[in-house]
């Protein structure tokens, strides 16, 4: 035998009350914002590609959706205050994963 190698003992961290409270309160947090995931998306006056263009949101822009109709979302651009419809094809919403 060549010799024994001493390794530090590893122990799993214990969950504290603060960790448990944070994990359980994850369900109570507000939903995450939607984000544009294409180069740009047009804000429209109605939920139709043929309706009037009111503005443009660019990649990475975050916004809040007020309601959804089919694959269209009624939004307010917080930067400009423009309200209108954007196609759900070009936007996504990050999802929070709550671990118990």
From TrEMBL:
Keywords: Signal
Signal peptide residue numbers: 1-17
SH3b domain residues: 31-95
Top-rank taxon: Bacteria
Alphabetical list of InterPro entries matching this protein: SH3-like_bac-type
The protein's name in its UniProt record: SH3 domain-containing protein
Organism of this sequence: Streptomyces cupreus
């Amino acid at each position: 035998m060549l010799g024994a190698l001493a390794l530090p003992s590893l122990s799993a961290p214990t969950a504290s009350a603060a960790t448990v409270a944070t994990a359980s309160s994850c369900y109570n947090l507000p939903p995450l914002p939607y984000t544009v995931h294409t180069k740009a998306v047009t804000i429209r006056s109605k939920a139709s590609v043929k309706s009037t263009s009111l503005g443009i949101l660019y990649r990475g822009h975050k916004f809040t959706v007020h309601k959804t109709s089919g694959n269209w979302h009624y939004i307010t651009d917080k930067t400009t205050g423009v309200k209108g419809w954007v196609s759900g094809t070009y936007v996504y919403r990050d999802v929070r994963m709550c671990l118990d």
